[in-house]
Amino acid sequence: MLTKSIHLTMKFKILKQSFLLILLFSVATVAQHKFVNTPPEVSPMPMKPEMTEIWEPEVKIVTAAKISGNAPSDAMILFDGKNLDQWVSKKDTNKPAAWKIVPGDYMEVVPGSGDIQTKMVFGDCQLHLEWSTPDEVVDGGQARGNSGVFFQNRYELQILDSYNNRTYRNGQAGSIYKDHAPLVNAVKSPLEWNVYDVIYTAPRFKADGRIDAPARITVFLNGVLIQNNATINGLTLYTGLHNYPSSHGDDVISLQDHGTKNQFRNIWIRKL
Ligand code: MG
User: Which of the pair, 198 or 1, is modelled with greater confidence?
Assistant: First the structure.
């Protein structure tokens, strides 16, 4: 009799736990659906920037090999050291990109001049881009050699001097900013060049404008896989939770002026 009553109590406990789990799952699902399709550039709930910064554990450091930046025959050249003809200012798209060129070599951010963006628009693509952070190390954290590549002008693959420079793991070089930390830290010193090779799949939207399939991204940094078909969870936001805007099509690729003299060279793209 006693054993039976213990059994009944246990059964009740298990039922209660299952009910609570189902309730939690339902609330989470409803909450998730609420995040989708909220207006762009606004977090679904008020938050502080630190609330989306993840610091631990530190991303493991890997020493990468040297790789060449030659474009394949079917690539569109976005920058080959000659001019910024494929780029315009983001602030005023009627104006040329105001970054400096060291002819035959690289372009450099002119701090304060603003972001630049491609003239052409892209969706699914393979992008190759080489970048270097300022040789002289002055600041730390997010202030050291910050820039970024924005796919479809919205989703940022972070550029940062992450060589001996701790910051939150989902904000270091190779992160999808405040979304996914890179798998490893394969960044070279500021005296060297880094190479991004990216396969980007644009998000798909339903006819009513809501998100159908989120964007996906695979990234190699200096030949080392650092993002493996990662799901991009929405617009890059500094503050708050990422979420998808309503439907959008192909859009420009932009490069960020975050106030430091980052350099870029050998940029080419293949539409997929
Ligand atoms: Mg950035």
Answer: 198
Residue 76 makes CB contacts below 8 A (sequence gap 6+) with: 120, 268, 269, 270, 271
Domains, the chain: 76-271 (2.60.120.560)
Q: What is the pLDDT of residue 40?
A: 52
* Cα 159 to ligand 1 centre (Å): 6
Which amino acid belongs to residue 3? Answer: T
Report the 10 Å Cβ neighbour count for 140: 12
**What distance in Å separates the CA atoms of residue 182 and residue 184, rounded to the nearest whole number?**
5
Q: How far, in Å, from the CA of 26 to the mean position of ligand 1?
A: 35
Percent of the chain with pLDDT over 70: 83
Ligand 1 centroid distance, CA of 106 (Å): 19
Q: Which positions ≥6 away from 114 have C-beta within 8 Å?
A: 89, 90, 91, 98, 257
Asked whether residue 20 carries a pLDDT value surpassing 80, the answer given is no
